């Protein structure tokens, strides 16, 4: 698994998850429940991971959706 995206923006995260779900790309969100530890202020970013073999397809999908600037560097 590799990190595709890191963000504090839960709306962006939800949109990216919907795109990946629609394309059938399996993904995992890490640090989603860290808000309990941080006091629900949204300070810690969530990390979205996809499989190594799906990474090129996922990156292309996000670029085509206009979200290329949000991607982690390769």
3D architecture notes:
The mean pLDDT is about 90. This protein has helices at about 10-20, 35-40, 55-65; strands at about 1-5, 25-30, 45-50. The chain is of the alpha+beta class and about 70 residues long. A three-stranded antiparallel beta sheet has the order 1-3-2, with helices on one face. It starts with a strand and ends in a 10-residue tail after the last helix.
Please tell me the overall pLDDT. Answer: 89
Ranges where pLDDT stays below 50 over 5 or more residues in a row are: none
Tell me the Rg in angstroms. 12 Å
Order of helices and strands: EHEHEH
Helicity range? 25-40%
Question: What does the largest sheet look like?
Answer: 3 strands, antiparallel
What is the strand arrangement across the widest sheet?
A: 1-3-2
Compute the separation of the termini in Å: 13 Å
Strand content is: 15-25%
Strand tally: 3
List the helices and strands and how they pair.
Blueprint lengths: L1 E6 L2 H13 L4 E4 L4 H4 L7 E5 L4 H10 L10
Antiparallel strand pairs: 1-3, 2-3
Can you summarize this structure?
The protein is an alpha+beta fold and 74 residues long. The protein has helices at 10-22, 35-38, 55-64; strands at 2-7, 27-30, 46-50.
């Amino acid at each position: 698994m590799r990190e595709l995206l890191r963000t504090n923006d839960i709306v962006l995260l939800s949109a990216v998850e919907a795109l990946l779900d629609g394309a059938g790309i399996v993904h995992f969100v890490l640090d989603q429940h860290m808000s309990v530890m941080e006091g629900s202020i949204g300070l810690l970013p969530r990390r979205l991971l996809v499989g190594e073999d799906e990474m090129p397809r996922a990156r292309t999908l996000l670029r085509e959706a206009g979200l290329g600037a949000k991607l982690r560097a390769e």
